Amino acid sequence: MAKVRIFVAGHKGMVGSALVRQLAQDPNNDVITADRTELDLTSQQVVQRFFAEQSIDQVYLAAAKVGGIHANNTYPADFIYENLMIEANIIHAAHKNDVQKLLFLGSSCIYPKLAEQPMREDALLTATLEPTNEPYAIAKIAGIKLCESYNRQYGRDYRSVMPTNLYGENDNFHPENSHVIPALIRRFHEAKEANAPVVKAWGTGMPMREFLYVDDMAAASIFVMNLDDLTYQKQTQPMLSHINVGSGVDCTIKALTETVAKVVGYQGQIEWDTSKPDGAPRKLMDVSRLERLGWTATIGLEQGLTKSYAWFLENQTGFRH
């Protein structure tokens, strides 16, 4: 039996590396990767040549330029340009080289700033986006619409999944540019090492957020990619093709912070600086469609945080700055 040749774009990122780890466990899969020195995803000509040479059966499009609020605010042109180029080049090259199956990974920031909670798939394009990451969000919406359009015009089977906040192995632990979980892990670890009596946290701790361990995200992505057409189409329509992926459970930032402190083993006090902004009161994905299709998350928050901290300890020499 011929192996399935699967190209994972963005294989060095957090989600891409988790996809490679899981796909490689199946002996029927031949996982193809290429780093930036070999393959410039922003070049249409280079991507087209790569697809023409590789005889690819499936594509997981996990490549993206990503960053936190500061990066999105500072480099909006880079974020919209690079993400539009990457997804347009890969999706078009996949079509031109007769790749029938593709999975595009988006982001929960595609939904309106004031979307009703929990956020359902049909909230897309119903109101204004969060201004700070609007260029990135618009690029991700364009990716969804590219998949829908190639499906409608050419009968392709290009699907999209929208993850909630992800964390885990290969996360970004940079002190300024990281998201909340890696930032908290690093802060509490350094406070423990220094015997610091107090760690300060922003805001009131009352906002609610949802988190999903990256191995669960990879498992959900492979699950959605491999659903048979009829099962998938029963839960999606031509103009509502994307599927939310999350744990379906949220917690307060205060509870998250206390759990991270517990996992790290920090014994000091946590002080809340209520002069700092809280952000949106709640951000939760409606994952009922994915559950109806037959998938639910398996890794709870404390278990996932424990795995993340273990990975941080093993790899921290690589991100001192």
From TrEMBL:
Pfam families, sorted: Epimerase (PF01370)
Binding residue positions for NADP(+): 10-16, 105-108, 140, 163-166, 179
Recorded superkingdom: Bacteria
Catalytic residues in the record: Y136 (proton donor/acceptor)
GO biological process, alphabetically ordered: 'de novo' GDP-L-fucose biosynthetic process
Keywords noted in UniProt: Isomerase, Multifunctional enzyme, NADP, Oxidoreductase
A Gene Ontology molecular function term of the record: GDP-L-fucose synthase activity
Tagged with keyword NADP: yes
Catalytic activity: GDP-beta-L-fucose + NADP(+) = GDP-4-dehydro-alpha-D-rhamnose + NADPH + H(+)
Pathway annotation from the record: Nucleotide-sugar biosynthesis; GDP-L-fucose biosynthesis via de novo pathway; GDP-L-fucose from GDP-alpha-D-mannose: step 2/2
Enzyme class: oxidoreductase
Site (Important for catalytic activity): S107, C109
EC number, as in UniProt: 1.1.1.271
Domain NAD-dependent epimerase/dehydratase, residue spans: 6-227
Transmembrane helix is among the record's keywords: no
Entry function: Catalyzes the two-step NADP-dependent conversion of GDP-4-dehydro-6-deoxy-D-mannose to GDP-fucose, involving an epimerase and a reductase reaction.
HAMAP family from the UniProt entry: GDP_fucose_synth
Family of this protein: Belongs to the NAD(P)-dependent epimerase/dehydratase family. Fucose synthase subfamily.
PANTHER family the UniProt entry points to: GDP-L-FUCOSE SYNTHASE
Protein name: GDP-L-fucose synthase
